[in-house]
């Protein structure tokens, strides 16, 4: 029988990771639009963006590991990467798995950005827009807390922030939105890539 604190850890890291993923997206758009935050120089916004994404990746690792070791939910290590193969709630967990898979593909192609055709890289980057909603619906359907009370308030605030950030990324005035949106995602995901590398290193 797994101790209850593992379950609490899984829930807490899931919620905080979603909040930080949202914040990373918002900061990525601030960076992409070359805006500043009050009291911070532009490089400070970039650093904040990277550090928040690092924290989010670390929490996601804890979230997934705690889900696998929690014997109550029966999620195999394979189900972490292979969508819809979890014995426990295959559909909701599968959406989380899809989000992680997308994240891995986006991070890897961002790391190889200089070596693959720009159009291919950009095409893959469009799929980033599916990442946040997948994680969001996963949280709503798999989670204990997210569907009601204060946690639902947090979820709705995140949805609002992610929606506004995405709309801003696509509707700016300075350049063609088709060029700008992938640039914001590139900034966000390459920061996540750096974060994930450190997360993997620290979890060895
Ligand atoms: C392989 C990938 C994943 C697995 C196996 C997984 C597993 C789980 C499980 C078992 C729960 C239910 C916890 C409970 O009983 O309340 C859960 C909830 C949750 N997960 Fe994931 N998850 C994955 C990916 C993600 C991702 C990418 C995010 C994005 C940040 C995320 C965010 C959340 C949130 C916000 C909750 C709701 C917590 C609550 O309501 O208490 N998960 N996840």
What does this structure look like?
This protein has 204 residues and is an all-alpha fold. It has one domain. The chain has 7 helices and no strands. Residues 175-179 and 198-204 have low confidence and may be disordered. Protoporphyrin IX containing FE (HEM) binds next to helix 1, helix 2, helix 3 and helix 5.
Key traits:
mainly alpha; disordered C terminus; binds protoporphyrin IX containing FE; 204 residues; globular
* Bulk shape: globular
Major beta sheet summary? none
Number of domains: 1
What distance lies between the first and last C-alpha atoms, to the nearest angstrom?
25 Å
Structural class per helix/strand content? mainly alpha
The number of helical elements comes to 7
Order of helices and strands: HHHHHHH
Overall pLDDT confidence: 84
